[in-house]
Model the fold of this input.
Amino acid sequence: MLNHLDKKTCLLMRQLGLEMPADKLFSDRNPSLKDAIISFGGYCSGVVVSDDGLIFTNHHCGFEAIQSHSSVAHDYIKDGFVAKNKEAELPNPGLFVSFLVSQKNVTSRILKDVTPDMDETKRGYIIDSLSYAIANEVSEKDSLLRGEVNAYYGGNEFYLSVYKDYKDIRLVFAPPSSVGKFGGDTDNWVWPRHTGDFSVFRIYADKNNQPAAYSPQNRPFHPSYVVPISLKGYQKGSYCMTLGYPGSTDRYLSSFGIEDQMQAQNQAMIDVRGVKQAIWKEAMESSDSIRIMYSSKYAISSNYWKFSIGVNKAIKELKVLENRRMLESDMVKFIETHSDMKAKYGQLIDSLRVNYKKLSATSHAMSYLGECFVNASDVLSLSLKAINTDFSSDSVAGRAYKESLVKEYANIDLSTDKKVMVAMLKQCSEKLDTVYLPGIYKVINEKYSGDFQKYADYLYSESEMISPRGLERICSKDTTFNVFDDPAIYMAVDVIAKFADLSQETAGINTAISRDERLYNEVLRQMYEGKSFYPDANSTMRLSFGIVAPYSTNNSSDATFSTTTDGIFDKVKRYKGNEDFWVQPSLLDILSKKDFGKYADKNGEMNVCFISNNDITGGNSGSAMFNGKGELIGLAFDGNWEGMSSNLSYEESLQRCIGVDIRYVLFLIDKYGEAPNLIKELNLKN
Done:
């Protein structure tokens, strides 16, 4: 945490190469580096690079926005996009960026009415209500600010983060997908890498430089801090730090919790998404319009699918479970040698073991139900959202959400979606015992002789939810529309009912596990009292620091810390015919001339990507990578396959952060995109 930088940490940072004073990294009172760091859409990170609100993030972070503006006639996914002037920049309703204004420890306020012997459910109610009240105080004092109270250290500490959200965000530049996704699924999570994973947006504000909804009258936002950009690059051992918003980690989770993640969440994702993606991919390859519709969904799904495969593999190969069990053995001994701890923690490990075992079957079932029915068929997903939304509210947020649901229909091909539903019904029936299946299976067996295709044919021919008309009829409270007679809504209700039943059955177990995992975290900090403990990631701003470090999959002498454009040509040739490595001939022609100018490395080559031992996770995508002077040298976009268990256990010798070299980004904007006007906005340092 940036406001937790102690003297020991600052000394280590300086020894590695940090030249900035700590108060230039983070300050609540004066402009600092943190004021240029954004949470992009609540799911990625980004950085402000110009006085006119220009921001850099990853291509995959901006992909949904790029897709939303794409069509067969204007295929910005395939061909890229360049706004030649500010008037041509494209608005993105629903997209926002957040700036961290301040952060404050509110643990004493949150826990003032909590007692050690309090029931965990009651404890949760008190914490939730006080968190809401404290967060709400922020917007009551200033309507332009948003407060958010987050739990840290397993729910033992709490901090209030104050944000300012800007909601007029416009697309400025996107490279073609042959750059932004070069290597595709083949290279995902793999080093060496040659992916230009970046996109460019601009923040707009009102005439007072304050947040405002989209308006043609809005002006480019003027930030309090703009990061300079280094053209000098880096060397082996160069200091490197990332600033961003990592999503979540579970590094203090018990071995029983890790095992549950492996067997339930991860395995369900591996089994189900592979089937769904195969259907999508076949449809995408048959039609450009379907390719554009499904590109973003496929990329997101595939990324987490491969991630789950890698995590389970790494847990086994790196003996994460065995190491965590050894830690727990030490924990038991520690508790036994401290008589004052026995009453509170004496049964902790046994309690975790017993409750996770009780939860196992249901956890497995709910994971598969979620993958098969919540994250698969778009028609069913929209039906679930529709019946969980109060459309009677006429708030701005309510109207915006309704509009966002209607827009989702533009990215549905009903024939493809029906195939997905049939496959998901089949998957769930094969993976789960009948006791865990929703009641719709009984209907399918009785009315359709167990034929999933016949049932899907009926649903897609009779349901109003296959088009926005169904949503409109629900929103307008059409009295002629008996919503629960609609087959898609009927199925959605049935799925929700099954989730509710399973949740109710396991409520007590989950409460006990939540309590024990919190106590587990508490004991760990007492065991290693002299150690500086960082809390698990929770989508709040974090700093990671390290060095640019060579890496190879087998620790051989061919370890590298950067790649060049020569590697692009090598892969295009090696993977000829593989669409993951197709590149526009016009771009290859530009790169082949090697006229890289001021963007070249000192040897005249163009670096594409580099790798460091920085600690990142999901949500860090788009994070700024800085040198010791606080100058931008790259954008983080990926980790490495061998270190995939890092969300559960940080392996210092293995975990790496892959970033796109900022000079490659600038070269593509300037020479390929022919947008020197954007380069002129930047503060370039030699």
Observations:
- The CA atoms of residues 50 and 682 lie 5 Å apart.
- The mean pLDDT is 95.
- The chain has 23 helices and 20 strands.
